[in-house]
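Each letter names a residue; the fold follows as tokens. Both lines appear below:
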Amino acid sequence: MPDIQVSFGKRMRSLREAKGLSQEKLAELAGLDRTYISSVERGKRNISLVNIELIAKSLGVKPAKLLE
């Protein structure tokens, strides 16, 4: 799997945990499935820009924060 997917997933997990959100709650806020959130965090998905924006909004951050 590409390193960027793994890095993105780790960053997303870090921000989610810092906000005190479960994968299930983040999925609910973003309108996505919990298994999708899990697979992104594990670096198994090549996530779309649309979903990056949904997740960023649900985390209360700008999309660029997920790519740092």
